[in-house]
Write a structure and sequence with these properties.
Elements: H1 12-17, H2 19-38, H3 48-73, H4 85-94, H5 99-103, H6 117-145, H7 163-177, H8 183-203
Helix pairs in contact: 2-8, 3-4, 6-7, 6-8
Amino acid sequence: MVEATPELLPSRAATQASCVLQMLRAATAAQHKALEARLPLTHPDLDRDAYQRIIQAYYGFHAPLQRQIERFHAPRLAQPERQKVPALVKDLRALGLSDAQIDALPMCADLPPINGEADLLGVMYVMEGATLGGQVLRRIIADRLAIDADSGGEFLDVYGRDTGRLWKAFLTRLADFDHPDDNPQVVESACATFALFARWLECNGVLR
C-alpha cells in the first residue's frame, strides 16, 4: 500500500466535514506505514517470482472478502464496478497460471466480519484506499518488471480513470454515515482489516 497521490485526495472541505475520516487516518497510520515498509512491491530487488506470489496472496484475500461483501449487500444491488477479483484472475493468467492452479490457491478464512454498514465502511476504507496507491505502484512495476495491464498488472490500476471518482464516491458515503455512535465501529473494522490482511500476507511469505 502506498499513500494516495495528491490529485486523488479529497478537498480540504470534504476532509473537515468527515470526522470519521480523520479518525480512520489517525487510527490506521501506524499499520499503514508498517505494512508499506514490509511489502516489497517498491523494493529495487523485486523480481517476477516475488511479484507473482504477492498477486496470488492478494487474490487469496480479495476473493473470499468480495464474496462476503456481496452477501452483505444482498438482496440489494452490489457494486460490480468495485470488484477487483476479475482483474486479479486476469493477472494470474497473464503470469502463467492455469484456471485449475488459480482455483487451487489458498483462500483466507480469517476475514474481518461484516455485520453492518459500519463494518463494511471500515473494510472499504482499507481496500478502496489501497487502489490509490496502485496508481504509483503501476508505474514502478512497469519500469522494473516490464509488466503492464495486459501482462499481469491490471489489478494495480483496477479502476483506471474511474479511480478518483470511485474514491470520492466512497468518501461521500463515509461522510453520510458519520455519527459519533457509529464511528468507533468503523475505525475498529478498518484496524481489524489492516491486521488481518497483514497477517495473511505474512502467512503467505510475501512480507519482508
